[in-house]
Amino acid sequence: MDDIAADLPEDFDRVRLKAMSPIPSVVVLLATFTLSDVSANALNDELNTNRYLRIDTVGRGLRRHTAFHRKQAAIVQERTRVREAASQWVARVFPGTMITDFKKASLPAIEVITTKLAAPFTRPQLPDVPVEEISSRLEDYRYLLSIDVEGDAYTGSSTPDWKIATSFRPDDDPWTIVCGHKLTVDESSRDGVTFGGPYTDDHFIENRFGGLMVRWAIKCLIECYEGTIAQLRDDLARNPTRENSRWNFIKQVGQNALRTETIDSLERASKLLSNTIFDATIVSNEVGKWVSNDRRWTYELDEYKQIHDWGDGQVDEIFFDKMLRTSLEDRSEWFGETIPLLRSELELRASIESTAANFRLQQIAMVLAIIAIFISVVAIAMPS
Hints:
Strand 7 and strand 8 form a beta hairpin. Helix content is 59%, strand content 13%. It is an alpha+beta fold.
């Protein structure tokens, strides 16, 4: 997308938007904001004033330390203010999106990722997308994530019977491809991004985008299917009695095909979430070398790394288990308990619908029989 400058905060000259849709129901938007020359010069002038750099001869060491930290505090404060302005602009221009802001954003480039999610219930309203276009999007997504595979499939010791296909066939599920494949990152040396320093897409993807997108993909998967179940659950809550709910259900769901598709979606959600729990182990093991490099971590994690043991370049299992495994297992158990109840409810409603249809047929047959009897009585009563 072209650079735009409509209704931007005064700190920015322009913002460049890059959109990517790995599947039709999900859109990823990368917004890169560029500071105006006036704002950048004003910021640099402010940070180079004596207020932050003055060092007195008395108590020189302490003064130097205090001046340095005051300057660092000013940088952090200015970054926070600019990030908030960028996020507010994105939220205003793209309402209803989920915003992910990078805490260690490098001026003059501020990165914001937004996503739009659509539950499977809205899928019939989406335009048909050719298989070739979906495959092309998946190829772009795979490149952006730096995903690579070895051999024809990737499998794990904990689930030897489950394998992930490496080719993008039409029947492959996008989320299995995204969450299941091996994540690799280029280990070539690069200079760290500094305040006001150079910015490249490759550097951004290598240092921060890969790990975030793995977690983001899993989050999208969960939210999509939780949205489906939430709609069914809300329908049950709105119609607590069988007598009131059956006609609303017939009116809202109607065709057997849609009801069957709903049940299939729930079963598919359970299967994919089960696989995703396995993926949490894959992610924990495969990105070990990625997180072992200090320059790939933002300053917010420095304190955490000092507390926990990161020996031999391995990922701290507590960190990833807390972030991925526990949450996914809880949701998977919830799916496992909910799906049979929803299936039973849907089957019961289908039975009620069928019974109601049979009852209507019986009513029609009874009315026709009464009419036939009436005609016969009239015919007998009439004189010859």
